[in-house]
Design brief:
It is a single chain. By secondary structure, this protein is an alpha/beta fold. It has 2 domains: 193 residues, Spore Coat Polysaccharide Biosynthesis Protein SpsA, Chain A (Alpha-Beta Complex); 58 residues. It has 10 helices and 10 strands. The strands form 2 sheets. It has a 5-stranded mixed beta sheet with strand order 3-2-1-4-9, sandwiched between helices. Strands 5, 6, 7, 8 and 10 form a 5-stranded mixed beta sheet that branches. Strand 6 and strand 7 form a beta hairpin. Helix 8 packs parallel to helix 9. The longest helix is centred in the C-terminal third of the chain and has 39 residues.
Length: 295
């Protein structure tokens, strides 16, 4: 078996259908299997998979296990030489997965690869980044980044800009990441302390510590309908992101860096709450205006 494709789904039935339909062309020429772990969806995703894709191995969980634990559930049963973690809101383009397998076959020193990611409209989505740090987190604030740029006369970037060129990176997006089975056996599966977010970052951190390269491969293209599975739960997702950030720094950073990261994350939490209140306030205002105009 060349490839095991693992998809964790939660209430994204239509996106999952499109994802599964794209796989035969994306993996043409490979011997592959597909595992779908459904995290107790309420939109009949599991029924759709069973009815329309009978060859898919379906694991229907009775509870939401989170991303890491659900993926591990399938990884323990997968038999491919390579394992691909794939989001349900993705559609790999024809030949994409075959190119990823071929690259890993030719480069045994590579422990993980990620493809070029494209938004729904075909525009570029950044993939392949440096590991997180408090400074990069701080520069995530537009005001802070602009202030630093003016004071120091520097342009701060979060990675390279030439996404048509293959290069070594620290980590790739968990939306589509392929890892050799032998590497998983060496470094372990995803850390289940992460419910969602940062799990693939910490995984790549372990893979690089073991001496392997992590590579961005633009010859393989995957459409990622970004946030398709979580955009309706912004506030919950923002809090999960911060929780996972705390876990990541606790595992990978020194005490002073952890403290600085904690301060930055508290600031991010406050910012996210203001953003959420602003969004909800606009919705309420539109409703009030709508009701008044209907009188």
């Amino acid at each position: 078996m060349d490839l095991s494709i693992v998809i964790v789904n939660y209430n994204t039935c239509q996106l999952l259908r499109a994802c599964l339909a794209s796989l035969p062309a994306a993996a043409a020429g490979l011997e592959y299997e597909v595992w779908v772990v459904d995290n107790a969806s309420q939109d009949h995703s599991a029924d759709m998979v069973a009815a329309e894709f009978p060859a898919v191995h379906l694991i229907a969980s009775k509870e939401n296990l989170g991303f890491a634990k659900a993926n591990n559930l399938a990884l323990k049963r997968a038999s491919g030489r390579y394992c691909l973690l794939l989001n349900p809101d993705t559609e790999p383009k024809p030949g994409a997965l075959r190119r990823m397998v071929e690259y890993l076959d030719a480069h045994p020193d590579v422990g993980a690869i990620g493809p070029k990611l494209l938004n729904s409209d075909g525009s570029l989505q950044r993939n392949g980044r440096p590991f997180p740090s408090p400074l990069r987190e701080l520069l995530g604030f537009d005001v802070i980044r602009k202030l630093f740029s003016r004071l120091l006369g520097l342009k701060f970037e979060f990675g390279r800009d030439d996404f048509d060129v293959q290069w070594n990176v620290d980590h790739v997006s968990g939306a589509c990441i392929m890892v050799p089975r032998r590497v998983i056996e060496e470094v372990g599966m995803l850390d289940e302390a992460f419910f969602m977010f940062y799990e693939e970052v910490e995984w790549c951190w372990r893979i690089k510590r073991a001496g392997y390269r992590v590579v961005y491969l633009p010859q393989a293209e995957v459409v990622h309908h970004w946030m398709g599975s979580v955009k309706s739960q912004y506030r919950q997702m923002a809090r999960l992101l911060l929780r996972s950030s705390f876990i990541y720094y606790r595992k990978t950073a020194s005490p002073p860096v952890r403290l600085l990261a904690a301060v930055v994350n508290v600031a991010r939490l406050v910012r996210n709450e203001f953003i959420y209140m602003g969004v909800m306030g606009k919705r309420l205002l539109r409703r009030l205006i709508g009701k008044r105009s209907g009188l």
